[in-house]
Amino acid sequence: AVHATELLVLAAAVALALLVGGARGDACPNDCNFKGTCNTDTTCTCHTGFTGGDCSQRTCPVGVAAWVAKVAEANDDAHDPILECSNNGLCDRSTGQCNCFHGFEGHACERTGCFNDCNGRGRCIPMSTLALEEGIDTSSPGDGIGQTYSNWDAEVIWGCDCDLGWTGPDCSLEMCAKGPDGNDLSTLDHVLTFNTDGSDDNADLTGSFVFVFNGQRSVTMDADMTSASAEANCETAFTSLPGIATARCFRTATEAGNLGGTFTVAFTLSPFGKNNLHDHDGTLTTTEAILDAAFQCDTSLIVVSAGTPSCTFTVWGGTFDARRTGSDVTTTYRIMITDQESDPNKFDWSVAGGAWTQDVAMTGTWQTLQDQTDINFGSTTVGWTQYAEWTVSADGSDTTVTASPLTKSHEYCGGQGVCNFALGNCTCGPGVVGVACDKPRYLNLTTEQSPPWAALHLNESKSDYAGNVLQMNLEDNLALDATWTAIRGIANQITQFQVAGTGLLTGPSVTFTGSWNADTFTADNGRTITTGGLDIDAGGMSIDNGLLKVIGVGSGGATIRQTSATDNAAVMRATNAAFGTNAQVLKINVDPARAGGEADMLDAA
């Protein structure tokens, strides 16, 4: 039997053994693998980077927010708590590395990947950078910088910002040229107005403005809008933007107290200069909201001694209207813009298909045409586009604008072709040509209803005109040879004349009057020169068949001039082997009707 005293001693020994064993860590699993601390309750507190009951496993990195961690109870709270691998991958406990699910990247699978690394044609950036560098400037005054975006996904959603000319989620698609419909020639350019000012009317604006269009920045424009070069500076700044091809700037007002000003800017869009983030269909100046999204102004380079600078864009207010004040004549008017460069712009008009007036300057008020019919371009006397045309029908006391020009569209291949995004080029429809299918292939003309019934009438009446009344350009690099024809005149299915690619004019019955200068002249059936004579300075003359007849009137006749001291002035050669005694190399005849008189058959001087 065991005495009570012995039991007490045994219990005390067991307790002491347990106490000493716990202090040595013998009770923690695997001694916490020497990667943690053994607690008195035999659990391990693992060092950083390790986990598990015995600290034998590695932990994986966590992201800034889990994509989905719980059921949302409020805005943006479904992304807490922060989890390993951002809940977008599985943790490899042996290495402490995340195996991300498809589409996610980063050491903690914390962000989306950019497909195919943007194919080397762009940069992969997070939404925070996208908003700051490419976003809309909403500050006042503007600083040209976008908004700060700090939502939970600011650093976790990434995407491609493609180089100009490329689009698609991975920048793999090459953008085709964009342009207006090539079949519609009567269209308006895009027009806006912008104003620069300061809150203190007596503090001059100095420094420079920078315009931002479609995410692209212009060169600087001097802040002095009252200077003589302000309009030219404006055009330089706008056309420096990759997305704008041409610009016409008109200063319409100045702020003399602080050198500010108001400008109307008419511009055409570049066929290129866009990418996946900055693309548009030409609807840029329809409403203030759309305009504000497309155009911003950076005032961060402006220096002002007092107050704050401002730079604002507004929609252009161009309108067209017509009215009658008393006539009962029923007729139709056509009104066309003829001068888009002058200030004010000018227009022509005709009534009932009659003659056109010449360069009527806009007045900004009602202007009378004929038969008590008035038109009005509103207060906007600049910014209109040459060849834009309106048709007004007048019936009794009423007028109706039956045709008006639209603002130029801006679509892939002009909306008249198909874009090949693999090559970045357009396959144009049958009626249009050009890199953006924005030019008509054919010009369909209607014959005039009165003599001389011209199907095409080109007229330039300005006394100082120095341009080309008709110019034809071929976009392809064709060789300057006779394999293609620049001009061909056909009557009754027979070519009457044609101008080859070399400039050579040929035809069965071509007649010249006045003077004619040509490097090469070819006549198939001989030619008669009735007046003016024939004067050949160089190159000579060769007649294979037929007859050359020169009929001198007054001082006319034929002159063969040789300026060389060693070359022959004229050579006459018979090349037929059967050349006989009844033929002459040179024959000089005097009109048989002339008898006697003072005339030399041949004079050597």
From TrEMBL:
Residues 24-56, 75-110 form the EGF-like domain. Keywords: Disulfide bond, EGF-like domain, Repeat, Signal. Coiled coil: none annotated. Gene3D superfamilies: Laminin (2.10.25.10). This is EGF-like domain-containing protein. It comes from Bicosoecida sp. CB-2014. Residues 1-25 form the signal peptide. The keyword Ribonucleoprotein does not apply. The keyword Phosphoprotein does not apply. Disulfide bonds join C28-C38, C46-C55, C100-C109.
